Amino acid sequence: MSASEADIYSSTILERARRPRHQHRLEPFDIEAREVNRLCGDRVTLRLRCDEQGGIAAVGYEARACAICTASADLMAEIVPGMTRAEALSAGQALGAALRSDGTTDWSPDIMPLRLFEPLRDTPSRIVCATLPWQALAQALAQGLTQMPAPGADEEG
């Protein structure tokens, strides 16, 4: 393995891919989204359960994907529960921006556990692998805005 491959496939990424902690079919769920990486065939199905305020209460995912994609999905499922929709969307956008930056981007505390993907900046095709679960999250959150009542909305009308 070359030095760059060793950096890309850190022990944490390999461990999360071998033994994901959060990969499961979430039931019941409020929102579901699927994303496919057409370049390599990675597939992620993401399910969210929302709390009464419209935040993210639980995340479950199923992935048929490479180590990087699976590890990213697993870390996402650990990070976003308890976040508002806006916070979760912002975290995904921050990850994408950090990986596409010239290395001067500050890593916010919300996404600091994802910094292990930083070596991917040098391999743009692998950035898509790391961001695919986050794209599914953005899709789910966009769907949720039309499917779920707004936080504090009166359900009786």
Fold and architecture overview:
This protein has 157 residues and is α+β, with helices and mostly antiparallel strands. It has a single domain (3-146), classed as Sufe protein. Chain: A (Alpha-Beta Complex), CATH 3.90.1010. It is 42% helix and 15% strand. It contains 5 helices and 3 strands. It has helices spanning 3-8, 11-18, 67-79, 85-99, 124-147; strands spanning 31-36, 43-50, 56-64. Strands 1-2-3 form a 3-stranded antiparallel β-sheet, covered by helices on one side. A hairpin with a 6-residue loop joins strand 1 and strand 2. Helix 2 (11-18) crosses helix 3 (67-79), helix 3 (67-79) packs parallel to helix 5 and helix 4 packs antiparallel against helix 5 (124-147). The longest helix has 24 residues, at 124-147. The chain is globular, with a radius of gyration of 16 Å. It starts with a helix and ends in a 10-residue tail after the last helix.
